[in-house]
User: Fold these one by one.
Assistant:
Number 1:
Amino acid sequence: MEWGLIFVDRLLFILMAISVAYLAIFAFFSLWGLKKKYPASTKKFNFLILIPAYKEDRVIMESVNSILNQEYPKDKFDLVVISDKMEEDTNRVLSALPLTLLELNAQNSSKALALNFAMDNLPNENYNIVVILDADNVVEPNFLNELNDCYFSGSLAMQAHRLPKNLDTDVAIMDAISEEINNSIFRRGHVNMGLSSALIGSGMAFDFKLFRKNVVHLKTAGEDKELEVLLFKERVFIDYLDNVKVFDQKTQKTGGFYNQRRRWLAAQFLSFAKGIKDIPGALLSLNIDYADKIFQWALLPRVLILGLISIFASALTIFSWTYSIKWWLLLIVLVFTFAMAIPDYLVTKRSLKALRKLPILFVLMFFNIFRTRGASKKFIHTQKG
């Protein structure tokens, strides 16, 4: 190999090795259980549950019913559904239920807009905790009780454990595996090491006053990342409630996966571009949560890291096999990292068959890199059915 190619090979390897090492460290620390339960609260706090629903007629009722059937005092929580372009029949059914229905007909829809609209039209303001759910989320009957205990113990920001509601297609399985890897590395592993959990967009709960103060600053399609920055700048710790389950509809088709990841990738790149200037200040002030978050945003998506390392290892095996050895070792470490991060219930023969989708998902993610411009500023609805 020429010296120029050797330099490029070593530079790319160092960059990929840093990414793999970061993932491997937190995957290792995720192996310790985080099934902690907070002491039972002696007080029942007031909840506001917000469900933004954009054209979610097919799934909204299951989500609403899971909240209305909570084993929590009915006078201690208000459910607000923000209906954006849902059908009149759906709105009529919702209106007959013990909830507040807000109808939003926005020209440029977004979750951030829906949340601000809801906060501006509250049934009252006597709340302690606000919960954000997606319209396809389903929670267990003890959901609010678990959040109540955590809040009573001092947590101001909480991320519940989002689990797949469906595993009916290869894409849905891969989507579920991806999310559980993220749960292990960026949530359980982080909290086990004393760092904040990453938010995920739904299954989130916050101190009401804290959320009200910050929600007005949410402007993009990456509202969860914007919220992370605002919280970390205030040094608010985000707890991860591994035992508090929120069941989420997984993307079933490659088109939905492509659109969803395009939006996520655009939000990640935008957040990194905005946050990189804050790295020196975050480090000097020992705001480790914020510095760690900016570093996370610098990482490529896991499927791209896996695909690129595989391509480099295979190509170098053909052209200069001695240089490929380190790449194959790095690939082994990465695969072992993912193995640590994937929970046992997803390790099945059906999941192994779903791995055939990996090359397609890699190609989709690769092309998404070149289609992120403007995607974080406009609403891209993910069709999951």
Note: The radius of gyration is 21 Å.
Number 2:
Amino acid sequence: MQGRSVVTGLARLSGRPICVLANDPMFLGGAIDAPSAEKMVRFIDMCDTFHLPVVNFVDNPGFMIGVEAERQGTIRAGARYIFAVYQATVPWCSIILRRVFGVAGAAHGNHSRLNLRYAWPSGDWGSLPLEGGVQAAYKRQIEAAEDPKAFREEIEKRLSAMTSPFLTAEMFGIEEIIDPRDTRPLLCEWIETAYRLLPSELGPKKRGMRP
């Protein structure tokens, strides 16, 4: 089954139809491969065409890498997914559950327009997952250390403080850090505003070029 690292679906909030996106960490750790990216492009375009607000539950470790990912054309498909997100004009709300890494993670919503972003305290930001990033960036220093394991753990501990969602909130990168139990009430409140912003009539949707 293709595109299993991403779950898409139609749902209702306060009786109003919405579109739901979510990463599934049970498959590829939730990483975005080419089939998943293509799946999201089709789904986002459908939601945008029919004026359905989008809720994105984010636990995204980034784009899938490796030889097979290259063969599938993951980056090109991923670029199309990013274009679809940024070309969508429907109201959008991202709930950051856990990981939000790399370009794929950063593209959880269109940052250039109204896109509400809330995070659970478990939110984890970064260009790369911390462990792999430390190993890549400090490889020589780690290998040269008297105790490589302890040296690596020291670096990871120092850098882990920078991945906190509280730092992102302080820089206004997200609207608020919320108690997970408040997620549904918050979304039910958001959906009422979202529907007031939607066009009153359906019509053809024009989109720009894509890779």
Note: Strands lie at 6-13, 16-23, 54-60, 92-101, 115-119, 124-126, 176-177.
